[in-house]
Amino acid sequence: MHVPNPDPRDGSRPLCGPLVVWGAAVLVLVVAFGVTAATRDTHPAVPAASAPVDAAAEVRLFGDGSWPPAGEAPVSAWAHVSLLATSSRPPTLAQIGKESDPIRREEFIQALLESVGRAEIPGTLAAWLAAESGPVAADAGLRLLRRWAEEDVPAAAAWVSGRAAGVLGEETLAVVALAWARRDLSGGLAWADALPPGSGREAVLRTLTGEVARSQPIQAIQIATTLSPGEPRDALLRRAAAEWAATDPAGAAVWACEIPAGDLRDRVLAGIAVAWAETNPASAANLALEELPPGRAQDDVVVSVIQRWSQQAPEDAAAWVERFPSGELRTAAMDNLMAMWSAQDRTRAQEWRVRAATLKPPE
What we know:
Distance between the termini: 112 Å
Number of strands: 0
């Protein structure tokens, strides 16, 4: 009996391979014909003269997964991808509002914004930011205004100034103020000074202060002090003071000590002390004990200082804690010091704890 040679170089190998290939090709053709027929039976035929699919038909198809109504051409995945690029008509606000998919919704909004030319921006904004336009139009309007302010902030500021009392007035002012702060702070301040007193002007100054607090904390504080008293102003002052303390804690502390006694002074000093503890925990500790009144605020700052001090010089932090009088603050300080010190040197921390237990706290 002849055994076929598995070596393909052997010329005596049977011709099974070509037959298998031809058979597979026939099978593929049969399957393809069946799939085509099934598709034709499942979906209605599309007339040859069907009109191109519009954006609304695309939204219906991809929004709920249903096949287009009779008489409309089926939309392929490629048609969805290329629809916005090839259509001469941008999506409408109504289409955007009905779109539930966040990715396609964002694509529609971007296409709509890109369709607005520079000369059309004022009129388009007036329509989109009108009271009856709705949330979709308001969102698109604020985006368009942001683009305009980034390209030409004086023109955008002039347009907004005459409409600041309308719908979204403070929001539109804040959008332009942010562009001023990033491009020309002095120009933004001059624009704010020209605005009439009121909540709109306050919104502009708050935006300018918040944006420059990190890079120009002293100027941010100067702007914030012109705001009406209240938590928004106080929050900006605390933030700017903490940023100032990151580079000049002593200077920030001198300024904060001049604030009249009260909650604002205590919270500003607390933020400065915590920031100062990163570079000079001893000075931060003295500031907390000398300038903050006894109470929860002082206790929280002391614990924060100890946590940072123990990472740099645990022995010095321990010597400071030993001078605390008996009470909850001494206990909390020792517990926090032990936790931080033990992570670095458990043996030394335990030795200190045993020794500290024998010390008599000062009166």
